[in-house]
Amino acid sequence: MLNRLVTTIVQFPQYIVRHPQFIFSLLLIIIIPVAFLVTGQQFLQVASENQERLEKDKIGIMHDVFVQLVLQNTNNPERLQREIETIVSQNPDLRKFRVVEATPEGLKILAAFNEEIVGSYEQETDLYNFSSVETDDSLIFEYFNGEVRYWQAFRSLKAPDGSMFFVFTETSFELTDQLFSNRIQEAYYWLIGILLIVMFLAYRHLRLIDYSFLYREAQDSISTRDLFTNMVTHELRAPLTAIRGYASMIHENNEVEFTVREQALKIEQSSGRLLLIVNDLLEVARLQSGRLKVEKTETDICKVIREAVGALEGTARDKAINLTTDLQSSECTIVTDGKRLAQILTNLVNNAIKYTEAGAISVVLKVHTKDVEIRVQDTGMGISAEDQKKLFAPFFRVESKDVSKITGSGLGMWITKQLVTLLEGEIEVESIKNVGTHVVLKLPKQ
Question: What are the two backbone dihedrals, phi and then psi, of residue 405, each rounded to the nearest 5 degrees?
Fold first, then answer.
């Protein structure tokens, strides 16, 4: 565990060099949460300042109303007391409410929410005296009792007869603060949720960086593989062709001993099979690298079919197979790549010859309204339903004692399928075990 940790720490700078976007992802994870927190704190500060200003405005407006109420009932303390009780009952945030008159004996309480203190004198008079300096505004103080916040407000007023009165209120903002705290808590929950989403997206981004890096590495590996395959196949073709040529010359030289000529024939046949495998590998490399181009022109497919079949008649004759064509239409011109079509037909017919011990092979052409159908029919060993599903997979060969002596790379049908796709066609197989096989090729006319 410790060794893995040390290895990770050592390789971390290399990881950053190979993944420069990793720094960007880290910045996202750090900057976005910090930005949210800073912005949230600024919003909270502005909201708190606005709340404080609104609370003071509310208290000031209440005191304006209370001043008028006191001026109208200075000579009627009973009515003033009832009005106070009505106001307090309608405003649950008001915890204390007093109307105080300045007398020679002191500040006498004329009316109060607590009727027991009516008629008594205030002991603490400093704040009342401070409020008398400015009679148009309320003197407001904030204090805390435990975790509960209160506003104490004092307002002085002068009656027309010169008497001095004071209005004192104490307002609790416990409910408001609780609501505000709940909203802040909900906002933090949302913030945490957003941060988790951002971290998840950043994690996904890092994973995508890894996938992108791995994809580029895979592409580089594929390019290297294709380059290697092309180089090796090109280098192998020349000596194999030379070996085959020299072996053929020895085999055809009647002055050479019979035993040597037979051995030369085996060398020629083996090098020929090896050359076919090399050619298949080269074709696969071209297909996978996208370097195999298709050039579509008006093509006489009847001519292409005859030439492909004609080139393989000798091979079929050696196995006593009757190889024929059935071109049922005089309309033979379509737009396709004649060279690739010849390659496809050669693969299909040659494959039919290899897997047919005796009987007949026929290449049938049918022309339809929008496409043409070329069917390669044989009376060979057939293919099981399970093997038909894998027939066009690379390196697939039917596993059977009947085909154990048949050589091949298993790439022929896969190459054929890729070439048909490049020609925008379709290829299907219809086969019954021990009866025969029909390979159906469909190509668009245009």
Answer: -90, 0
Tally the domains of the chain. Answer: 3
Answer for the pair 364, 375: CB distance below 8 angstroms, yes or no. Answer: yes
Does 356 map to a domain? yes
249 shares its domain with 301: no
156: closest CA among 107, 84, 89? Answer: 107
Do 200 and 260 fall into the same domain? yes
Q: What stretches of 290-369 adopt beta strand conformation (E)?
A: 297-300, 321-327, 333-336, 359-367
CA–CA distance, 349 with 361 (Å, rounded to integer): 8
Residue 342 pLDDT level (bands cut at 50, 70, 90):
confident
Nearest Cα to 18, choosing from 214, 224, 180?
A: 214
Q: Please give the model's pTM, rounded to 2 decimal places.
A: 0.49
Chain length of the chain: 446
225-239 confidence digits (pLDDT tens): 666 666 766 677 778
CA distances from 88 to 75, 98, 325 (A): 21, 11, 110
Quick: pLDDT tens for 146-167: 778 888 888 888 888 888 888 8
Examine the domain organization and report whether 360 and 389 are in the same domain.
Answer: yes
Res 50: pLDDT: 80
Whether the predicted pLDDT of 403 surpasses 70: no
CATH of the domain at 112: 3.30.450.20
Q: Which amino acid is at 333?
A: T
Burial 394-403 (b: 16+ CB within 10 A, else e): eeebbeeeee
H-helix or E-strand containing 428?
strand 426-432
The neighbour count for residue 349, using CB atoms within 10 Å, is 24
Q: How many other CB atoms are there within 10 angstroms of residue 37's CB atom?
A: 13
Secondary structure of 6-18 as H, E, C letters = HHHHHHHHHHHHH
Mean confidence (pLDDT) of the chain: 78
Is the pLDDT higher at 83 or at 153?
153
Do 303 and 272 lie in one domain? The reply is: no
* 437 and 336 part of one domain: yes
- Tokens at residue 444, please? 């668009």
| In the predicted structure, residue 401 carries a pLDDT above the cut 60 | no
Residue 215: exposed, middle, or buried by beta-carbon count in 10 A (0-12, 13-18, 19+)?
A: exposed
Q: Is 420 a member of any domain?
A: yes
Task: Supply the pLDDT for residue 100.
Answer: 86
Which domain covers residue 62, as residue numbers? 24-172
Strands 359-367 and 371-378: antiparallel
Residue 313, both tokens: 């008649």
